[in-house]
Amino acid sequence: MSRVEEGTLLWEPDASRKKKANLTDYRNWLKEHKNLRFEDYASLWDWSVHELEAFWETQWEYFDIQSKKPYHTILSPRKMPGTKWFQGAEINYTEHIFRGRKENKTAIIHASELRDKTEVSWAKLYRDTASLQQALKDYGIQKGDRVAAYLPNIYETIVAFLATASLGAIWSSASPDFGTQSVIDRFKQIEPKLMFTIDGYRYGGKDFDRMEVAEEIQKELPTLEKTIGVPYLNSNTDFSNLIDAATWEEAVDRSGNGELHYEHVSFNDPLWVLYSSGTTGKPKPIVHSQGGILLEHLKALTFHQDLGEEDRFFWYTTTGWMMWNFLVSGLLTGSSVILYDGSPAYPDKQMLWKFAEETQMTVFGTSASYITGCMKDELEPGNTYDLFHLKSIGSTGSPLPPEGFQWCYENVKEDLWIASVSGGTDVCTAFILGAPTLPVYAGELQCRGLGAKLESYSEQGTPRIEEVGELVLTEPFPSMPIYFWNDPDGTRLYHSYFDVFPGIWCHGDYLKITERGTGVIYGRSDATINRGGIRIGSSEIYRAVDQVNEVEDSLIVDIPDGEGSSSTPLFIVMKDGATLTDEIRKKIVQHIRQQCSPRHAPTEIHEVDDIPKTLNGKKLEIPVKKILMGQPSEKVVNLGSLRNKESLQYFIEFAKKMKKK
Fold it and tell me: Which residues belong to any copy of the AMP-binding enzyme C-terminal domain (predicted)?
């Protein structure tokens, strides 16, 4: 594919799409009910971040949040960390999932490598959730208890989460492809009372038994009192070796009136515990509130994903990534949520596009790496499959290069809204995202999210426009962590976000905000390439390397030599059948010199079998950099946090060779 310039206009919504957008309905509502008039998105965003209390109160009213008690303050105090939202209110997340739903309408569509596509009605989802809620009550689960889930992205997992949240208990999940110690490092910190587990799963056509792993995990969880086993790999699995085990069928086959009862909790009480990647130590247990997630996800999914009752919302994810939580919240909008468990590339990369056709998907959420992989394989899904219903593609996980945007328009669909988004586990949402009323420019995220006072800061702490700087939030945001688990004085949380610019959330990404209000992410700010005082993000290097067809993947690090200079080795994975030759080396360097700058060309290029990545697919730039700088691998990376830990050995050996030199 030919190179396209960042900022090239690729698509604009027509008048009909703008008129039907939920954002337009909200603007009309503000005009009618609050006498507030906004000419465009920019003016609406500006009001939303400067009048925080007024903006978030309109979210409460617009979405008709149900509260057992009224709130007495919207935001107090207005500082970070320590902000409290809607104090006095008592709500329940699950209650908002089920209110006003049409029983016979499809709530969930799910499929996997083990299961055929199945549609589940709202009526069945409600019945199963009510039955499981009764089981959890019978097992002694109460408000504040922790429920751990070692489950894949399947229907039962959503039922388990909704039943847990309905009781005011605290949910925490880990994907079955996580290593044993990685799961222990997560669950042991929160001391769960009950654990859901599967027996195994299938990925890429291969079966993976997880019964012994589940037993090992439970040995490290002394607070565990009950297990609910989900037969997934085999229908007749024996779970009796696990702690006081019941099967899923036993748990959901409950006598009772079939009605859900909602435990109303404080707006600022915990909903779930998510975890940082844990690459350099035990994962940080990040706690989000019921109310903060409810309000933020309603806003983000309604206005920035434009979801409604007629949508079918999909995101390829596992239960160990915050996008699973975001996907489940699609139910808040009345949309049908689509789940898939298995490899996105089995039997080949066409599989998800075929799935989009079969499910009549309207919103296709995936990773930037999947899109660039399809691009490199020269797929043409728009010509191969009927994607008539598809209206939007969402992308996250890493920056989507401009060519990825262009590929979607040329090979998926011409009339397509591409909503590339960026946020993180820390806030369990995106704060730079899409808007259906705005144009799409190549390589750019359409807008800063409503209510998110996002800035690009210089090292001196001043905001920048059209310059790359630190991504910061300068005002409180409702889905920020209420605390880290077992961090009573907040020290760990403070040093994670607030010690760079006191009172300002520093996210750790490199961001440029353009004059037109769009954003461009250039990767992690601590992984930038600095040559002669000129910094660029690693994503810019990867974009250039991606233009070389023979290269499958890459990783670059900047290694200072202590004398004011540095080396920048580039490590690449070749496509099957391709060999790293001098000609390809020259081609890689030429692309980087032309598309980035001559000074950012790598000092050396090495072929590797694989690039080390976290369980969520993030490249291990910083740990690899530290290893190559001579730090012991066991101190800079937690092997349990890696998807492919064997790939790290190359870099350990490489560091030894560097030391000898």
Answer: 545-618
Where are the chain's structural domains?
A: 9-91+291-451, 116-263, 527-660
As a 3-state breakdown, the chain gives helix, strand, coil percent values, each rounded to 5, of: 35, 25, 40
For residue 353, what pLDDT is reported? 98
Higher pLDDT, 508 or 112: 112
Express each pLDDT in 110-152 by its tens digit.
999 999 999 999 999 999 999 999 999 999 999 999 999 999 9
Q: Which residues contact 659 (CB under 8 A, 6 or more apart)?
A: 630
- Alpha-carbon gap, residue 319 to 490, rounded angstroms: 27
CA 191 to chain centre: 25
The amino acid that residue 216 corresponds to is E
Q: Considering the entire predicted model, what is its pTM?
A: 0.88
From residue 651, alpha-carbon distances to 573, 613, 647 in Å are 14, 13, 8
Q: Which of 383, 333, 396, 323 is nearest to 362 (CA)?
A: 333
- pLDDT band for position 632 (cuts 50, 70, 90): confident
Angular region, 80: left φ>0, alpha ψ -120 to 50, beta rest: beta
pLDDT, the chain, mean:
92
- CA 361 vs. chain centroid, Å, equals 19
At residue 13, what are phi and psi to the nearest 5 degrees?
Answer: -70, 145
Per-residue model confidence (pLDDT) at position 2: 65
Q: Which two tokens stand for residue 90?
A: 């008592």
Can you tell me the distance from the alpha carbon of 241 to that of 268, in angstroms, rounded to the nearest whole number? 38
For the segment(s) 527-660, the CATH number from 3.40.50.2300, 3.30.300.30, 3.40.120.10, 1.10.510.10 is 3.30.300.30
Per DSSP, the residues of 372-438 read: HHHHHTT--HHHHS--TT--EEEEESSPPPHHHHHHHHHHT-SS-EEEE-EEETTTTEEEEE--TTS
- The arrangement of secondary structure in 9-91+291-451, i.e. its CATH architecture, is 3-Layer(aba) Sandwich (3.40)
Among 150, 144, 319, which Cα is nearest to 221's?
A: 150
End-to-end CA distance of the chain: 40
Spatial contact of 273 and 287, defined as CB atoms under 8 Å apart: yes
What does the pLDDT read at residue 141?
A: 98
Q: How far apart are CA 452 and CA 152, in angstroms?
A: 31
pLDDT band at residue 389, thresholds of 50, 70 and 90?
A: very high
**Parallel, antiparallel, or unpaired: how do β-strands 84-87 and 73-76 relate?**
antiparallel
The C-alpha angle with vertex 137 and arms to 133 and 143, in degrees rounded to 5, equals 90
Residue type, 380: E
CA 84 to chain centre: 24
Question: Which of 101-110, 169-178, 303-312, 556-565 shows the lowest per-residue confidence on average (mean pLDDT)?
Answer: 556-565
Residue 530 has pLDDT above 90, yes or no: no
**What's the one-letter identity of residue 462?**
T
